[in-house]
UniProtKB/TrEMBL annotation:
HTH iclR-type domain: residues covered: 17-79
Highest taxon of the lineage: Bacteria
Pfam families assigned: HTH_IclR, IclR_C
GO BP, sorted A to Z: negative regulation of DNA-templated transcription
Protein name: IclR family transcriptional regulator
Domain IclR-ED, residue spans: 80-252
MF-aspect GO terms: DNA binding; DNA-binding transcription factor activity
Alphabetic keyword roster: DNA-binding, Transcription, Transcription regulation
Amino acid sequence: MATRTARDTTAESSSSIQTVQRAALILDSFTVSRPHLSLNEITARLGASKATAHRYTKALRAANLLRYDDRTALYSLGPQVLTLAAAARAALPIVTAAEPYMDRLVQLAGQTVVLSIWDGESPTVVRSADNTDHLIRISVRVGSRLDLATSAQGRVFCAYLPPDQVPALGKLLRRAPELRAELDWIREHGLSVNSPSENGLHTIAAPVFEGDAIIATMAIVGTSVDVPRQADSPMAEALLEITRDLSQRLGNNGVPHAEAAG
């Protein structure tokens, strides 16, 4: 009977690690701005032969982590990635920490409350708490990606994140110079209330800090009739009170002065 040596075991371990690293590299190649890639692009990213890249894409397709469009000959992320992303979001410490504060705000405001985090390009919803007492409920899908310039949550992140963490900010400010004044207003008042109404809905949002850095935004979503635009409304004040309480729990001793948007 053949005897396995330590060298054989080490070689297998190194091969397994390389396999995982290459699969992760392929999946990491897809971004919001580049959701579709050709085999040539994946091959270049992988730094291996086209045959090797094809073997990996075939295995990832079998696991539903990639999908392939025969018509365009392009790859995109598969449905299993959504399942993994949902599980990852649910496990975020900020979600667990924010849950009781969100539930408290739902009771105070009587509206849907949404928590979003920054995904590197835009806000992504990680938890939504509905007001179950309303005859008509407003629900926001977890995993939704919000517009950077027009959503209240997007504007809050633009106001408080360092400019180098918001790649699209410079272009946005050149295209809409009035946004700069809006971001200054948000930093002065600690929340965004001037988001456009879409489909009769209105959103106000405030930052949540961990230490001195913004980690999330909490927002109230309701009809344009139910959610006022005034920064001194009881609803806005309740939002500010609860986000400050949560931020203090996460080690923030006062809202830091954010860098001016560049």
